[in-house]
UniProtKB/TrEMBL annotation:
Protein family per UniProt: Belongs to the TMEM161 family.
Membrane spanning stretches: 141-160, 172-192, 231-250, 271-291, 373-398, 469-496
Top-rank lineage group of the source organism: Eukaryota
GO cellular component: membrane
Pfam families xref list: Tmemb_161AB (PF10268)
Subcellular location(s) per record: Membrane
UniProt keyword terms in alphabetical order: Coiled coil, Glycoprotein, Membrane, Signal, Transmembrane, Transmembrane helix
Organism encoding this protein: Gasterosteus aculeatus aculeatus (three-spined stickleback)
Topology of this chain in the membrane: Multi-pass membrane protein
Residue ranges of coiled coil: 434-461
This protein's name: Transmembrane protein 161A
Signal peptide: 1-20
InterPro entries for the chain: Transmembrane_161A/B
Length: 503
């Protein structure tokens, strides 16, 4: 029994996971997908003009003293030029040397590379589970997906903390406002019946509480009762939703701005514009997929005159939903560079706006503005990619932990087996007449078997309490909620940039 358990825990999945972690660590300085995304030569930044160039455009002679000399001599008056000078910024491709000075570049590179390797481990695990019956093994691909979600949340928390520590209070107020709005919306969503929003939270929580009670009695706590009610759990879930809503406030606002600029930048390419609009509306599609009257019921009984036809059966709808969510995330990843280039073009856009104004401006202010836009490139990239990672890897974890299948109608019924029936027992060790060396080897083997047996019991107990039915409800709701926050913040961003900024 111990040998079989050891194979289950230290099988090929663990070997591939350790190999992926080792390759990611060793290959990061040499081959990085995150570096390729920014530094492959397809993105162009704008260089800030020098003081000599600005003086030449303004028709004045460059002062002989440098900026440092003027500062040392106590001259605080900066070099100024007219705002309406004919300034055109010079383009340059983003290279690896430029990327090293970007803010949060190391965090960006690590997260994106980890997401790439997590995808590879998940795909291997899916192929392995289709070939071998791995129902008794721990799905390490799902663990990689869950870790990617947690690391993505941590990255968003770091960015939000940066806004909170800002000297200006506007960013902090925006995060708090979206967090409070998300709390109200989440409490409304959590009281909607399953007939309209089919997350499966009710059945998932019921399964969790029942299995916890059975597990507690099996451990000897006969009179133990769960002090947590479903209302308490939902209030905690609503607080988590408010936190996620605050995290996704600025990513949604930034997405709206880059979307508008990307569409305008590709005004002569209608196919690219269609893809950009589809990627922007993809969270709306994710929202509709869990609205039962608009998705499952409609496809199963689509009205056709006086009759109704079945486009997709109810059994096949779960698999179709997974494919649609993954395809929408893939589309958003495919148009990433259009959004990033649209952000970098803000430098030239700001210069064109400056030319329409009157008065003078300090040369250092022009240089700072152009440089600052490029320095925040990785921040903008994280704000674009991390929400996509949250939806994508939550969906992949939902597929693996919820016992769904990519093939229509092939998913298994989620198990609700009580914890009592799933706990394994360690195989007895038969004593025998052995010499000292053999006894030492046998003792070491027994220790290994005992350790594996305890780990097996822990994993079996965890799987018996956190059943696929529970994961189906929780992960489906979190996937839907991330998409909802994206829709709320991005639509508000469209309204802000299209109407409020124009006025």
């Amino acid at each position: 029994m111990g040998v079989r358990n050891r194979k289950a825990l230290m099988g090929i999945q663990l070997v591939v996971s350790l190999l992926a972690a080792s390759v990611m660590q060793r290959m990061a300085p040499h081959c990085s997908f995150a570096r390729w995304l920014l530094c492959s030569g397809s993105l162009f930044r704008f260089k800030h003009p020098s003081e000599g160039e600005l003086c030449a455009l303004a028709g004045k002679q460059m002062p002989k003293q440098t900026r440092r000399d003027r500062r040392q001599n106590g001259e605080s008056k900066p070099l100024t030029v007219p705002k309406d000078i004919d300034l055109h910024l010079e383009k340059a491709p983003v290279n690896a040397l430029d990327a090293l000075v970007l803010r949060f570049f190391l965090e960006y590179q690590w997260l994106v590379d980890f997401a790439v390797y997590a995808t590879g481990v998940f795909l291997f695990t899916e192929c392995y589970c289709n070939i071998v019956d791995a129902s008794k093994e721990v799905n390490l691909g799902a663990i990689w997906c869950v870790l990617t979600v947690l690391f993505s949340v941590k990255t968003l928390h770091t960015l939000m903390r940066h806004y909170f520590l800002s000297e200006e209070g506007g960013e902090r107020s925006v995060c708090l406002a979206f967090g409070f709005l998300s709390l109200l919306v989440a409490m409304l969503v959590l009281v909607v019946r399953e007939d309209y929003l089919e997350f499966g939270l009710e059945s998932g929580f019921s399964s969790l509480f029942d299995n916890l009670e059975v597990f507690a009695k099996q451990q000897g706590y006969a009179d133990w009762s769960i002090p947590v009610t479903k209302l308490t759990v939902k209030l905690g879930l609503a607080a988590l939703c408010a936190y996620v809503g605050a995290l996704l406030a600025f990513p949604g606002l930034r997405l709206a701005q880059t979307h508008l600029d990307a569409v305008q930048m590709n005004s002569g390419r209608p196919l690219v514009q269609i893809l950009l609009h589809l990627s922007f509306l993809s969270p709306v599609i994710v929202l509709v997929l869990w609205v039962k009257p608009l998705a499952r019921d409609f496809l199963a009984n689509a009205p056709m005159g006086k009759t109704s036809i079945t486009i997709v059966s109810s059994d096949a709808f779960d698999s179709l939903r997974l494919w649609v969510v993954v395809a929408s995330c893939a589309l958003r990843l495919a148009v990433t560079r259009y959004h990033l280039q649209a952000y970098l073009n803000l430098a030239q856009k700001w210069v064109e706006q400056m030319k329409k104004e009157v008065g003078r401006i300090a040369a250092i202010d022009i240089q700072r503005k152009v440089t600052r836009i490029f320095c925040y490139l990785t921040v903008i990239t994280l704000q674009y990619l991390v929400p996509v990672f949250l939806i994508l890897f939550s969906t992949l974890a939902l597929k693996a932990l919820g016992d769904f299948s990519w093939r229509a109608g092939a998913e298994r019924t989620p198990g609700v087996t009580p914890a009592l029936l799933l706990l394994p027992t360690a195989a007895p060790v038969l004593p025998g007449g052995l010499d000292e060396d053999e006894e030492g080897m046998e003792d070491a083997e027994e220790d290994i078997q005992a350790t594996v047996a305890r780990l097996s019991e822990a994993f079996a107990a965890l799987r018996s309490v956190l059943t696929p039915l529970f994961f189906r409800g929780l992960l489906a709701f979190l996937t839907w909620w991330v998409a909802a926050c994206q829709v709320i913040s991005s639509l508000f961003g469209i309204y802000f940039h299209q109407y409020l900024m124009q006025n």
